Structure prediction request, 311 residues.
Amino acid sequence: RRVADILLAEPAERQAVVVSAMARTTDALLGLVAAAEQSAPDLASRQEALNSRYRTTVGALLRQQNRADEILGTFDADMADLRGLLHSISLVRQAGERSRDVVAGYGELWSSRLLAAYLGERAQADARKPQIRWVDARDLIVIERGEMGPAVRWDESRARARRHFGADIRGISVITGFIASEPDGLFCTLGRNGSDFSASIVGALVDAEKITIWTDVDGVMSADPNRVPEATIISSLSYNEAMELAYFGAKVIHPQTMAPAVQRSIPIWIRNTFNPAATGSLIGPAAGSQQPIKGITSVDDVALVTSREQA
Ligand code: ASP
Ligand code: MG
Prediction:
């Protein structure tokens, strides 16, 4: 509900929102894969827990029966597929990487479809009546897996983005985070916590004016508040400063996540879903202020070894 409040309050005419799975869902899905590998007897009851949690959420959010039926119909089909996948994993007693990725990605499909349906209901009562669309990122983001992690195939992804986000598209596009496709069409994920990366990729694909990472803190902190109670929110910092802070242990945004935005100089805002009144932190091409030191981080339990070549 809060997410819908935030999105419907945004004045921009075109928004793309990338969502992650509901809390703990990806862990639960990967737990199912591990349980299937061991042919665990409680597989069915664990799957049932996911089932009832989703149904409860759908029931609590959607008022229109036809929307709820449609969402639950798709969900039931996914659940049947999931049961089949888990069954075959339990027979083989080992999950291949592909099966694991397919299972892990369900969480984003379910959360984004539900958000789109809920926004659809809310949009009817909204003065602007924004159009709501659902986009499966597997039709949008094409990646190649390399030793350094996933690398976006920009030309192919851009061509797809042009099809999905033509100039005539208005309103809110709800997009699955975390999942993508490979050039051969196989499904894959961007790695754990990959939804921020998805958001940055989508931002670059649509040449977004800005990318906002909605999280659970007011912004990038000048120090770890557990150790430095006086720590404050850094109102603006450069990409380099943010990368440096992240590299040295601050829980900012992951440097890899920022890369697509940095390449196109798109400003990244870090804002708090639970406190949308807070301005947040702006990470952009410019430092924003002349303050020479923006933040202090520390890395624990690390030994630093410097090796010098003998002249
Ligand atoms: N749901 C995925 C995960 O738990 C992606 C994300 O949260 O960003 O890793
Ligand atoms: Mg997450």
In short: The first strand starts at residue 14 and ends at 19. The chain has a mean pLDDT of 95. The pocket of magnesium ion (ligand 2) is lined by residues 20, 193 (CB under 6 Å).
